[in-house]
Amino acid sequence: MTSITRKLEFDAGHRIPDHRSQCKNLHGHRYVMEVTLDGDIVTVPGASSNGMVMDFSEVKSIAREHIVDKWDHAFLVFRGDTAVVEFLATLEDHKTVVLDSIPTAENLAHLAFDTLAPHYADRFEGTLRLSRVRLYETPNCWVDVVATTARL
Ligand SMILES: Nc1nc2c(c(=O)[nH]1)N=C([C@H](O)[C@H](O)COP(=O)(O)OP(=O)(O)OP(=O)(O)O)CN2
Ligand SMILES: [Zn+2]
Protein backbone atom coordinates (compact mmCIF):
# COMPACT_ATOMS: atom_id res chain seq x y z
CA MET A 1 0.00 0.00 0.00
CA THR A 2 1.18 3.50 -0.82
CA SER A 3 -0.15 6.86 0.37
CA ILE A 4 -0.31 9.95 -1.81
CA THR A 5 -1.35 13.47 -0.81
CA ARG A 6 -2.62 16.40 -2.87
CA LYS A 7 -2.81 19.88 -1.39
CA LEU A 8 -5.49 22.35 -2.48
CA GLU A 9 -6.27 25.86 -1.25
CA PHE A 10 -9.39 27.99 -1.14
CA ASP A 11 -10.67 31.19 0.44
CA ALA A 12 -13.89 31.29 2.41
CA GLY A 13 -15.69 33.37 4.97
CA HIS A 14 -17.32 32.08 8.14
CA ARG A 15 -18.11 32.85 11.74
CA ILE A 16 -18.52 30.76 14.85
CA PRO A 17 -21.67 32.21 16.38
CA ASP A 18 -21.20 30.81 19.89
CA HIS A 19 -17.53 31.72 20.18
CA ARG A 20 -16.58 33.72 23.25
CA SER A 21 -14.06 35.84 21.37
CA GLN A 22 -13.05 37.10 17.91
CA CYS A 23 -14.34 34.14 15.91
CA LYS A 24 -17.96 35.18 16.35
CA ASN A 25 -17.22 38.06 13.94
CA LEU A 26 -17.64 37.60 10.21
CA HIS A 27 -14.14 36.83 8.89
CA GLY A 28 -12.34 34.63 6.42
CA HIS A 29 -9.44 32.26 5.93
CA ARG A 30 -7.27 30.89 3.21
CA TYR A 31 -7.95 27.25 3.94
CA VAL A 32 -5.46 24.58 2.94
CA MET A 33 -6.83 21.10 2.43
CA GLU A 34 -4.67 18.00 2.09
CA VAL A 35 -6.31 14.91 0.65
CA THR A 36 -4.49 11.63 1.34
CA LEU A 37 -5.34 8.44 -0.53
CA ASP A 38 -4.14 4.90 0.16
CA GLY A 39 -3.91 2.47 -2.71
CA ASP A 40 -1.82 0.21 -4.84
CA ILE A 41 0.45 1.46 -7.59
CA VAL A 42 -1.08 0.82 -11.01
CA THR A 43 1.00 -1.61 -13.06
CA VAL A 44 -0.76 -1.52 -16.40
CA PRO A 45 1.67 -0.87 -19.26
CA GLY A 46 0.36 1.91 -21.47
CA ALA A 47 -2.19 3.15 -18.93
CA SER A 48 -1.99 6.88 -18.27
CA SER A 49 -1.69 6.23 -14.53
CA ASN A 50 0.87 3.42 -14.86
CA GLY A 51 3.29 3.74 -11.94
CA MET A 52 0.90 5.92 -9.90
CA VAL A 53 -1.64 5.31 -7.14
CA MET A 54 -3.78 7.94 -8.84
CA ASP A 55 -2.79 10.82 -11.08
CA PHE A 56 -2.42 13.89 -8.82
CA SER A 57 -4.43 15.89 -11.35
CA GLU A 58 -7.34 13.47 -10.95
CA VAL A 59 -7.06 13.70 -7.15
CA LYS A 60 -7.29 17.46 -7.58
CA SER A 61 -10.19 17.48 -10.00
CA ILE A 62 -12.37 15.29 -7.74
CA ALA A 63 -11.61 17.48 -4.70
CA ARG A 64 -12.28 20.63 -6.72
CA GLU A 65 -15.55 19.41 -8.18
CA HIS A 66 -17.06 18.31 -4.88
CA ILE A 67 -15.56 20.71 -2.31
CA VAL A 68 -13.12 23.38 -3.41
CA ASP A 69 -15.10 24.93 -6.26
CA LYS A 70 -18.23 24.98 -4.09
CA TRP A 71 -16.53 26.58 -1.04
CA ASP A 72 -13.99 28.89 -2.71
CA HIS A 73 -14.97 32.56 -2.25
CA ALA A 74 -18.18 31.48 -0.54
CA PHE A 75 -19.47 32.35 2.90
CA LEU A 76 -19.94 29.14 4.91
CA VAL A 77 -22.78 29.62 7.37
CA PHE A 78 -24.55 27.40 9.90
CA ARG A 79 -28.23 26.92 9.08
CA GLY A 80 -29.06 27.86 12.68
CA ASP A 81 -27.21 31.17 12.43
CA THR A 82 -30.37 32.83 11.21
CA ALA A 83 -29.20 36.45 11.48
CA VAL A 84 -26.37 35.78 9.03
CA VAL A 85 -28.36 33.41 6.80
CA GLU A 86 -31.05 36.06 6.40
CA PHE A 87 -28.51 38.84 5.81
CA LEU A 88 -26.67 36.87 3.12
CA ALA A 89 -29.97 36.15 1.39
CA THR A 90 -30.39 39.89 0.85
CA LEU A 91 -27.18 40.07 -1.22
CA GLU A 92 -27.81 39.56 -4.88
CA ASP A 93 -25.95 36.57 -6.40
CA HIS A 94 -23.94 36.04 -3.22
CA LYS A 95 -22.08 32.73 -3.01
CA THR A 96 -23.38 31.28 0.25
CA VAL A 97 -23.09 27.70 1.46
CA VAL A 98 -25.58 26.86 4.20
CA LEU A 99 -24.33 24.02 6.40
CA ASP A 100 -26.06 21.74 8.89
CA SER A 101 -23.24 22.30 11.39
CA ILE A 102 -21.21 25.25 12.69
CA PRO A 103 -18.33 25.93 10.26
CA THR A 104 -15.48 25.08 12.62
CA ALA A 105 -12.41 23.53 11.09
CA GLU A 106 -13.45 20.21 12.66
CA ASN A 107 -16.91 20.21 11.10
CA LEU A 108 -15.64 21.38 7.71
CA ALA A 109 -12.97 18.67 7.65
CA HIS A 110 -15.57 15.99 8.48
CA LEU A 111 -17.89 17.33 5.81
CA ALA A 112 -15.10 17.32 3.24
CA PHE A 113 -14.07 13.78 4.23
CA ASP A 114 -17.61 12.39 4.10
CA THR A 115 -18.31 14.12 0.79
CA LEU A 116 -15.10 13.04 -0.93
CA ALA A 117 -14.65 9.48 0.38
CA PRO A 118 -17.23 7.81 -1.89
CA HIS A 119 -15.93 9.61 -4.98
CA TYR A 120 -12.40 8.25 -4.50
CA ALA A 121 -13.66 4.82 -3.42
CA ASP A 122 -15.42 4.46 -6.77
CA ARG A 123 -12.11 4.52 -8.64
CA PHE A 124 -9.87 1.58 -9.51
CA GLU A 125 -12.47 -1.06 -8.64
CA GLY A 126 -12.59 -0.14 -4.97
CA THR A 127 -8.85 -0.53 -4.32
CA LEU A 128 -8.38 3.15 -3.49
CA ARG A 129 -9.56 4.85 -0.32
CA LEU A 130 -9.50 8.28 1.22
CA SER A 131 -7.44 7.81 4.37
CA ARG A 132 -7.17 11.39 5.63
CA VAL A 133 -8.38 14.92 5.10
CA ARG A 134 -6.21 17.54 6.79
CA LEU A 135 -7.70 21.02 6.84
CA TYR A 136 -5.64 24.04 7.86
CA GLU A 137 -7.77 26.95 8.95
CA THR A 138 -4.69 29.07 9.56
CA PRO A 139 -1.00 28.20 9.17
CA ASN A 140 -1.02 27.38 12.91
CA CYS A 141 -4.32 25.50 13.26
CA TRP A 142 -5.41 22.33 11.53
CA VAL A 143 -7.66 19.30 11.87
CA ASP A 144 -7.16 15.72 10.77
CA VAL A 145 -10.05 13.41 9.90
CA VAL A 146 -8.87 9.86 9.30
CA ALA A 147 -10.59 6.76 7.98
CA THR A 148 -11.71 4.69 10.93
CA THR A 149 -11.81 1.23 9.41
CA ALA A 150 -8.73 -0.80 8.61
CA ARG A 151 -7.98 -1.26 4.91
CA LEU A 152 -8.69 -4.77 3.60
N1 LIG B 1 -10.88 23.87 17.71
C1 LIG B 1 -11.13 25.01 17.04
N2 LIG B 1 -10.80 26.19 17.59
C2 LIG B 1 -11.02 27.32 16.91
C3 LIG B 1 -11.59 27.31 15.62
C4 LIG B 1 -11.97 26.04 15.07
O1 LIG B 1 -12.51 25.94 13.96
N3 LIG B 1 -11.72 24.94 15.81
N4 LIG B 1 -11.73 28.45 14.93
C5 LIG B 1 -11.32 29.61 15.40
C6 LIG B 1 -11.36 30.85 14.56
O2 LIG B 1 -12.33 30.73 13.55
C7 LIG B 1 -10.01 31.17 13.86
O3 LIG B 1 -9.97 30.50 12.67
C8 LIG B 1 -8.78 30.83 14.58
O4 LIG B 1 -8.31 31.95 15.17
P1 LIG B 1 -6.98 31.98 16.00
O5 LIG B 1 -7.01 31.03 17.13
O6 LIG B 1 -6.81 33.41 16.31
O7 LIG B 1 -5.90 31.43 14.95
P2 LIG B 1 -4.60 32.12 14.39
O8 LIG B 1 -3.77 31.10 13.72
O9 LIG B 1 -4.99 33.28 13.55
O10 LIG B 1 -3.95 32.58 15.72
P3 LIG B 1 -2.54 33.26 15.97
O11 LIG B 1 -2.52 33.46 17.43
O12 LIG B 1 -2.53 34.52 15.16
O13 LIG B 1 -1.50 32.27 15.51
C9 LIG B 1 -10.83 29.73 16.78
N5 LIG B 1 -10.68 28.51 17.46
ZN1 LIG C 1 -12.13 31.54 11.55
Automatic annotation (TrEMBL):
It holds the Pfam family PTPS. Keywords: Lyase, Metal-binding, Zinc. The active site is at C23 (proton acceptor), H73 (charge relay system), E137 (charge relay system). It catalyses: 7,8-dihydroneopterin 3'-triphosphate + H2O = 6-carboxy-5,6,7,8-tetrahydropterin + triphosphate + acetaldehyde + 2 H(+). Zn(2+) binds at H14, H27, H29. Pathway: Purine metabolism; 7-cyano-7-deazaguanine biosynthesis. Its EC number is 4.1.2.50. Its cofactor is Zn(2+). The keyword Transmembrane does not apply. Binds 1 zinc ion per subunit. It is an enzyme of class 4 (lyase). GO terms for molecular function: 6-carboxytetrahydropterin synthase activity; metal ion binding. The keyword Metal-binding applies. Belongs to the PTPS family. QueD subfamily. NCBIfam families: queuosine_QueD. This is 6-carboxy-5,6,7,8-tetrahydropterin synthase. It comes from Pollutimonas nitritireducens.
